[in-house]
Amino acid sequence: MSENPHVPRDKTAGDKTAGDMTAGEESGLSRKQFITAVGVGALTVPAVVGAAAAAGAASAPPENELLACTPGRTTIAQMEGPYFKPNSPQRDDLTGGVSGTRLVVTGHVFNRACQPLSRVLLDFWQADTMGAYDNTGYRLRGHLYTDANGVYRLTTIVPGLYPGRTRHIHVKLQAPGQPQILTTQLYFPGEPRNNTDTIYDPSLLMNVRTVGSGREATFDFVLNVAGTSSPTPTPTVTPTGGGTWQAGTYYAAGAQVTYGGATYRCLQAHTAAAGWEPPNVPALWQRV
């Protein structure tokens, strides 16, 4: 089978294009099937969120606008493709038995109110350096959970180019106690095929930098899950970070810093590192 968007395929419940799907919609798997597929007891995990507090799911960001954790705005869904397999092993390192450029992907998973979600299930699968998927075993396949702070960390390799597609990584996400499963894909900045891949969406770009012989990437997901109830009166919340940009500081989405005499607003929560200065990483910082 092919992921080539130029090859016509019949549309089934499990074969929707990105335009056919809304944020938080699952293509072809019910919540129970997904939980069973990865072999975990998510049905017994207590719900992370409480009473609904925010508005419904919002639309995807405008074209060419990178996704930040804006209250009410969720990560867009994309097609599953033909190579998803159930029963992936639970692991956060997919590099065993494969060669390629090491890639560490980290980030947060938030609800619509930009509150971190713990115990979110993330199931990843991707091609190897030659652009091939393992359809007989579980090479470059695995699932993991966010920690108590909504953080995930995946160690894998940079995928190869698949015919008709740009470089990408597949992922499914499901928050405990929630019926929705988000199926989407992550992309790499600066790839020539980003301009010709009809499935590619710039809001799903990871922020990627080279570190030694490998790469590090960040991406924050926002699920179509309502925020928890707030106490009354609602306390004032100040974004983490601020002042002059400094490596080693954690910056929340919305935090503002100064660097080189200019002011920048944080687009994706992250811990700053040398090489990620605001002018160098438009995926993380926007000049204001």
Entry summary:
By secondary structure, this protein is mainly β. It has one helix and 15 strands. The radius of gyration is 19 Å and the shape is globular.
Structure overview:
The chain has one helix and 15 strands; from the N terminus they run αβββββββββββββββ. The strands form four sheets. Strands 1, 4, 7, 8 and 9 form a five-stranded mixed sheet that branches. Strands 3-2-5-6 form a four-stranded antiparallel sheet, with no helix packed on it. Strands 10-12-13-15 form a four-stranded mixed sheet, with no helix packed on it. The N and C termini lie far apart (46 Å). The model is unreliable at 4-28, 40-67 and 230-238 (pLDDT under 50). By secondary structure, it is mainly beta. The chain is globular. It has one helix at 31-38, and strands at residues 102-110, 121-125, 141-145, 151-157, 168-174, 182-187, 207-211, 214-218, 221-222, 243-244, 250-251, 256-259, 262-266, 270-271, 285-287.
Q: Which shape, going by the Cα principal axes?
A: globular
Q: What percentage of the residues does DSSP assign to strands (E)? A: 15-25%
Using DSSP, what is the number of strands? Answer: 15
* Overall average residue pLDDT: 77
Portion of residues within helices: under 10%
Order of helices and strands: HEEEEEEEEEEEEEEE
Radius of gyration: 19 Å
Structural class: mainly beta
Q: How far is the first residue's CA from the last residue's CA?
A: 46 Å
Question: Unreliable runs, pLDDT <50, ≥5 residues?
Answer: 4-28, 40-67, 230-238
Oligomer: single chain
Major pleated sheet = 5 strands, mixed
